[in-house]
Amino acid sequence: MTYRAEYIWIDGTEPTAELRSKTKILADGEEPGIWGFDGSSTNQATGDNSDVVLQPVFQCPDPIRGGDNILVMCETLLTSDLSPHPTNSRAATRAAVEKYGDQDAWYGLEQEYTLLDPETKWPFGFPPNGYPGPQGPYYCGVGALRIAGRELVEQHTDWCIAAGLKISGTNAEVMPGQWEFQIGPAGPLEVGDHLWLARYLLYRAGEMFDIEVSIDAKPMKGDWNGAGMHTNFSTAAMRESYEPIEKACEALGAEGVPAKHLAGYGVGIEDRLTGEHETQRFDQFSYGVSDRGASIRIPWQVKQDGKGYIEDRRPNANADPYTVAALMLDTVGAALA
Asked: Cys-Cys with 287: which of 85, 105, 208, 249 at CB 3.0–4.6 Å?
């Protein structure tokens, strides 16, 4: 008897990395070990030295194939010494955990995405070559005139639950054809593993329904909301008292820090962070209680309770969750150490 292991990894596509996968057939009882691929076809190697190593780091049930089949998230390694490949962003998160793991960081990622017609590239639910009514009724909306793509969303959610991923909610977003799912609470490495595999299942759901899934930060120019990956973050100290929350916000706004974070928060930052559509401008930093126009929002309930978490509203939908997790932990971890 045999089973299938779907090896999944992040490639070297620029400016936004993409997921790749291939299937390995394994005998029952055989564990998925290291494997390899042609890096010259994924912007991760040259043709004269093309091999890149896949190192399994997380696995879960494959909800699409069912049975004993599994999904395997992998890091990429160099063949020369099995060190992390330059495109291996998970390695930086591991390094941050080694320094600040004792702070017990938790994350909740809000992954927004847009469903597109694969032929016209127009958002799913928009009239052909036209526009729907202005934003307002679509957020968490109900009804055929407000919602498009719910069957895909339900299928994706079912798969995430069956895979054991830490999906904690879904909702329709402000722009028609735009949706969100949330992953967390989870640790720094765990949240990235689960988010990337949730993206994989989302793209597979798009294949099933013949709908293109986009995580572009600003899929529709003009008076339409962009797509983000708002990042909820806390440490044990922040979950116990309010002073560490204020220290975290001040550290995130310290000289040079906002620019460093924005450089790792995905492609299209300036298109999305305009100061409109519930964003702070990319060239400004602010934090405030219940302020969705700030860079960092402190939820009202957190202020009332005197403890809890913060929401970094700047990461784009196309940001790498490993990179976001490492940046948050390095900056806040150092400030609270």
From this structure: 249
| CATH class of the domain comprising 96-336 | alpha beta
| Mode of pairing for the β-strands spanning 212-214 and 106-116 | antiparallel
Structure tokens at 124: 């799913």
Total count of residues recorded for the chain: 337
Q: Parallel, antiparallel, or unpaired for β 212-214 and 229-234?
A: unpaired
Model pLDDT, residue 130: 86
Q: Which band of pLDDT confidence, cut at 50, 70 and 90, is reported for residue 208?
A: very high
* Topology of the domain comprising 2-87: Ubiquitin-like (UB roll) (3.10.20)
In the chain, where are the structural domains located? 2-87, 96-336
Average predicted confidence (pLDDT) for the chain = 96
- Among 118, 194, 204, 115, smallest CA distance to 161 is for 194
Write out pLDDT tens, residues 71-105.
999 999 999 999 999 999 999 999 999 999 999 99
Q: How far apart are CA 317 and CA 310, in angstroms?
A: 18
46: left (phi over 0), alpha (psi -120 to 50) or beta: beta
- The CA angle 56-61-63, to the nearest 5 degrees, is 130
Residue 129, sorted as left (phi over 0), alpha (psi -120 to 50) or beta, turns out to be left
Task: Note the helical H segments in 73-124.
Answer: 90-100
The answer to whether the beta carbons of residues 2 and 30 sit under 8 Å apart is no
Buried b (16+ CB within 10 A) or exposed e, 149-162: beebbebbbebbee
Element (H, E) at 128: none
